[in-house]
Amino acid sequence: MSTKISIVNLRNYDSILDAIEAGITLIADPLPFDIRECKNILLKPNLLKPTKDACTQPVFVRAVLEYLKDIEVENDNINVGYSPCQIKSSFKMIAKKIGLYEVCEEVDVRFINFEQEIPVYTSL
Predict the structure, then answer these.
(1) According to the model, what pLDDT value does residue 109 have?
(2) Is 118 left (phi over 0), alpha (psi -120 to 50) or beta?
(3) By the number of CB atoms within 10 A of the CB, which of 9, 17, 80, 112 ranks highest?
(4) Which residues share a beta bridge with 41?
């Protein structure tokens, strides 16, 4: 199976949801599954350090979460998680400092700190 990517030009953050929808639409048709039927979706933003230039911005994560909500993915099926693997910074501290933790709380999506918990899912 080949990897597909989409690139969408974004001039400002006001149109980020439209850009995300356009990007997903460019690759969605050939996907061998329906994302609405997925039981466990993990969004793993990059959070190197608590500065704007070293992290996936909360506005981007919020827009992806809004897209998933728009296509009727259940909140219980969505998680945001990460582990920076650093001694001086925790994922939760970085997420709180840049506003990502608040996004998860506002949208009511589970926030998983891999430094403290490892999710294990089974299907029967």
Answers:
(1) 94
(2) beta
(3) 80
(4) 78
CA 93 vs. chain centroid, Å, equals 17
Q: At what angle do helices 100-107 and 58-70 cross, to 10 degrees?
A: 20
pTM of the model: 0.80
Residues 6+ apart with CB under 8 A from 23: 6, 7, 8
* pLDDT tens-digit map of 10-26: 887 778 888 888 888 88
Taking only the tens place, the pLDDT of each residue in 50-105 is 877 788 889 889 989 988 998 899 989 999 988 766 666 677 888 899 999 999 99
What separation in angstroms does the CA of 124 have from each of 79, 121? 21, 10
Q: Residue type at 107?
A: V
Which DSSP string do the residues of 49-113 spell out, in sequence order? SSSGGGB--HHHHHHHHHHHHHTT--GGGEEEEE----SS--HHHHHHHHTHHHHHHHHT-EEEE
